[in-house]
Amino acid sequence: MSEFVTLEEIQTTAVRIAGVAVRTPLVRVNTGRLAAAIGFEPPFELFIKDESAQPIGSFKLRGAFNMVSQLAPAQLKRGVITYSSGNHAQGVAYAARALGSKAVIVMPDNAPAIKQAATAALGAEIVLVGTASSARKLKAEELAAEHGYTIIPPYDHPHIIAGQATCGLEILEQCPEVDLVLSPVSGGGLLSGTATAVKQAKPGVQVWGCEPELAADAKESFDTKTLVEWPAAMTTRTIGDGLRTQSLGQLNFEHILKYVDGIVTVSEDEIFRAMRAILAATNLIPEPSGAVTLAAALFHAHELPPATKVAVILSGGNVEPALLERLEAELAATGV
Length: 336
Description:
Layout: H1 7-17, E1 26-28, H2 31-38, E2 45-50, H3 60-68, H4 73-78, E3 80-83, H5 87-98, E4 103-108, H6 113-121, E5 125-129, H7 133-147, E6 150-151, H8 158-174, E7 180-184, H9 189-201, E8 206-212, H10 217-224, H11 232-235, H12 250-259, E9 262-266, H13 268-281, H14 288-299, E10 309-314, H15 321-334
Pfam families: PALP
GO molecular function: L-serine ammonia-lyase activity; pyridoxal phosphate binding; threonine deaminase activity
Family: Belongs to the serine/threonine dehydratase family.
């Protein structure tokens, strides 16, 4: 059993990344506007933790900067490498640029163009491979061995977990009365970190993970207490491009089993409905991966514990322009 990240480590991390990663807002949702969009009013106060407010548009900067900033000067000089479908790629690229290091990013060739462009704009070198998350990990390891780069894993590392955990600390500080926190889950960095922070600081708060039905390896792993892997042909079916990882990280899985209360899955239609609801009820821009938490809160409340104040993490806002235009057109057509 690996050692678990401590609350003290998370608090130290919050100080380390301050000034680079943003303390993002916790937005209280107008339930009237939400009800107009979805046809009913939820029986709880709803808050959205807006990680799209980060400089790279997602929470991934927290963990990436926490790890890159702790590298030795010699490691920074040689450069860093990671494997990511987009948001962690931007986090590593941003952190490397801030610290004067070269960044190489291995991305799947089906990564959204907006995320590829944003990563390149941060000065990173992009290497494209196939759609399997295992393929990009192997390529990153190959290049690291060849060039001496330091690998910055997207989720399976204590520094990454501690960085993402700062999101959970902020939620407790911004809404001390919260009794349910919902986090997206893919490789498990955000969910394991958020749950670790919340449960150590305030054990009575429930923390649940949310993922697409079409990429539900985390739920299967949690329910069976055995780490499973789904083939890329299955996980790539979901619109949630940031949630297509084939398996939880080992260290993330251990933290999730210790601190997470449950995992719920949502349909593709529910993800779209949640995205439209966010656009209609707030000024926030959600990417599909970030909308799974609201989808769970609104359409799967019967599977979740009763709560009066619910915080859902909007993990990012890097949505493809064409998809955003489509959703906005649908809202305009309904008159919401």
